[in-house]
Amino acid sequence: MRGSCSTVEDVPSRILVPLAALLALSSCAAQGGTPQPAPAPASSSPPPTTSGSAPPDPAEVGANELGSVPVLMYHRIVAKPESVYDRTPDGFRAELERLAEEGYVPVTAGRFAAGDLDVPAGAHPVVLTFDDADPSQFALTEAGEPKPGTAVSIMQEVAERHPEFRPVATFFVNADPFGDPGGRRTLPWLLEHGMEIGNHTATHANLGESTPDQVRREIVELDRLVREVGGEPSTLALPFGIQPEPPELALHGEGYRYRGAFLVGANPSPSPYSAEFEPSGIPRIRSQSGTGPEAEVCSTVWLDKLAASPSLRYVSDGVPDRISFPRASTETVAPGLRERARPY
């Protein structure tokens, strides 16, 4: 849907509060404070451990599983962008190449919200999300292959060049996704190839202006569509980034129970292990180059900030059932996860 998301001015300021320290840190050098290191070259990132090898000591890879995670938000992938929500195929490919070279490994929104981050030691999780199920994200040829130039096709190309970069993403869909009635052809292909199908409501309704019964109907109707083709939706992308009242209605109601609801947002998300993590309002970053309207909160700028301040981003210890982080960290582990905490 066109015009489906709000601008930064429409995003509640409280969404930015959990990472206010990041904004302050990034502006420190410009105001004469302590200079921040330049972005490290890709080769400086600790190499992820290979499958089957023993994970290194957390200190060896600088593990910080309370660090921030970029959840990137995409809409259309088109040759001639018409808004800040559009990316060109070349721009999208370049961003994926950068993520791969800097040691990011994609995980689905559902696994992220559940805290199921099986990422190699030294690597950083990233969540790739697509709203509105536009055909530029995914379409099939007559032969049943991803159409060249679509987001899925480009993801596969990048993964072929970077084996550690999993070609997985979460597609938040509405009714008749990708111009495919009921998603009968497209959704099964995505599911069979490791993608996740999330809920974006049946009609892209403004849940903040909907009654509780309307909210439930919007979510349940789309939930049923996905389940009819074999999916098991566990996350919701809030249309326009607007939460219902109460916000928890985005996560559970009669006929559905979800792990996370995603905002439009303008900053990285706290780690799902952090006490600051709020499942009913997970922030996302709009994918955009470093120029143009509202570029100060776009993906290019945030990836630059995280590269310049590596201590702020999530770094995996390679062991899914423990949470490693430096003792000096100012972040705190969520109360229900403290038994897994392993400060070093």
TrEMBL record:
Q: Determine if NADP is one of this entry's keywords.
A: no
This protein's major location comes to: secreted
Which spans does this entry mark as compositional bias, Pro residues?
36-49
PROSITE patterns given for it?
A: PROKAR_LIPOPROTEIN
Keyword RNA-binding assigned: no
Q: What compartments host this protein?
A: Secreted
For this UniProt record, give its keywords in alphabetical order, as a comma-separated list: Signal
Q: Where is this region: Disordered?
A: 30-63
Q: Signal sequence span per UniProt? A: 1-29
Q: What is this protein called?
A: Polysaccharide deacetylase family protein
Domain NodB homology: from-to ranges: 121-244
